[in-house]
Amino acid sequence: MITVCFHGAESTGKSVLAGQLSRELGCPWVPEYGRTYCEEHGTDLAMDDLLAIAEGQQAAVRMAMAGRPSLLILDTDQLMTAAWAEMLFDAAPEQLLNYPRADLYLLFEPDVPWVADGTRFFGTAQERTRFAQIAEAMLVRAGVPFRRISGDWNARTKGVQAAIGVLAAQA
């Protein structure tokens, strides 16, 4: 099984492309549990909320993996939750770095327009840049393989497809 995790600042197309590619490739994807959590509990988050989000995300991943798909797309994982912790509280608990890792991370650049949806926090250019830097730093800190995804929606789609294609060919 190959796992590919979409990673990066808010409003960069991760969820849209995860759903789209899941349909096109006929593979499952695990949506971002944090969005569901915030819709149910609100967006006034404490560190305990982020730890609960990490656990909820992992439970959803375990359920998806039980079907043993050849490819599984993760809309996010605990490394992104760690980036959120760093962004919100200037600290990322070590336990967020100890979850299982994806085979490849696709780092989405914040070079598309921001879209507010009621659960997003960081819409200014300065905030988006900082969040993108923290997200990348978390991947570097974890020592995981990643590729950048940028450009318009067409370029993003092609970049993701190419990265998944290379990974699948190596498997």
Terminus-to-terminus distance: 9 Å
- Major sheet: order of its strands? 2-3-1-4-5
Low-confidence stretches: none
Percent of residues in helices comes to 40-55%
| Beta-strand residue fraction | 5-15%
What's the helix count? 6
Helix-and-strand structural type: alpha/beta
**Number of beta-strand segments:** 5
Helix-strand pattern, N to C? Answer: EHEHHEHEHEH
How much is the average pLDDT? 91
Write the layout of secondary structure elements.
Layout: E1 2-8, H1 14-25, E2 29-30, H2 33-41, H3 47-66, E3 71-74, H4 78-89, E4 104-108, H5 125-142, E5 146-149, H6 153-170
Parallel strand pairs: 1-3, 1-4, 2-3, 4-5
Fold and architecture overview:
- It is built from 6 helices and 5 strands; from the N terminus they run E-H-E-H-H-E-H-E-H-E-H.
- With 171 residues, it is of the alpha/beta class.
- Strands 2-3-1-4-5 form a 5-stranded parallel beta sheet.
- The relative contact order is 0.22.
